[in-house]
TrEMBL record:
It comes from the Bacteria. This is DUF998 domain-containing protein. The chain crosses the membrane at residues 57-78, 90-110, 130-153, 165-182, 194-212. Keywords: Membrane, Transmembrane, Transmembrane helix.
Amino acid sequence: MPRPTRDPRTARAVWAPLLLATAAVVYNDWVLEFLLPTGLDPRHSYVSELYAADQRFHGLFGGIELLAAALVVAGALLARGRSPGRWEDAGWWSLVAFGVASVADVAVPMRCAPSVESPCEAVNPWHTTTSALVHLALFASMALLVTSAALGAPSRPAVRRWGPWVLGTAMTTALATVGPLFGRPGWHGAPQRAHLLLVGVWFGLLAAALRAEARPRPGTARLPGRPAPRVVAGQPIRPYTCSAPENDGR
């Protein structure tokens, strides 16, 4: 018997949400600092300091950041193939750009940890640039996909309802981390970690929305044992649906 072919849409419906949901957890790898002797104070240190070039766990945290970036890129590319549109397409490509910029962020890490090394500069030109690109791509993805949900994606009520709140609070917490860039360090670590949690919430919202889109809509289920709809001479045959018999009055 010939082997049944796998519908690529089914694979996307399963794998895109799974990849983004996993990225939501992996991206918040900073929680490991409560288990590891990093020597950094989460209240007053950037998360980037965890994988600074001279830090003890540079390889561990840098590797996890790369894994998170790969998960986001793969999930966004799979999700993009589901329902392309102007706003939708731009939003998923922005999320791909976010993953690529995150790789660059790891490739040019901070040289040292300024929160515990006084001679260390807080502004590393290359790393600051890549971090800015990460945030730019992230906020673009939020704005574009929220717009897409508001204009033409009724199956994404969670993104339409909560997306603007996540975008606004994520931008607020991101702005609260720039103190060291202007010579005012201290307490920038707490809002940055809150920001990363909000990024995880964003990935979770997208994963939930994609899963909701994959569920069959009411009235489209086939009867048990009936074949799937076929196409004959270019015209699709209407699928079998469950419906009550009409009452003709007899």
